[in-house]
Amino acid sequence: xxxxxxxxxxxxxxxxxxxxxxxxxxxxxxxxxxxxxxxxxxxxxxxxxxxxxxxxxxxxxxxxxxxxxxxxxxxxxxxxxxxxxxxxxxxx
Length: 92
Prior knowledge:
Oligomer: single chain
Distance between the termini: 10 Å
Shape: globular
Structural class: alpha+beta
Largest sheet: 4 strands, antiparallel
Number of strands: 4
Helix content: 25-40%
Low-confidence stretches: none
Number of domains: 1
CATH class: Alpha Beta
Mean pLDDT: 97
CATH architecture: 2-Layer Sandwich
Strand content: 35-45%
Radius of gyration: 13 Å
């Protein structure tokens, strides 16, 4: 079965990056505690943040998006994000 890879490119609103980084760091910590989350890392370049996630399968990613920490992350971060692009891949 193919692993699920998710990439998210964020543009954070001017002056909000220092608020956003602790929120995404907590999300990474919580996500890595999920049993089928294989990778969850983020990188920064100015106000741009790149997120790379990998899950054992699609069901594992679906579980991830149903968790309380995912819902909390969405709620806490939405006002800080100017733009975001989400892409979903499968491993080959």
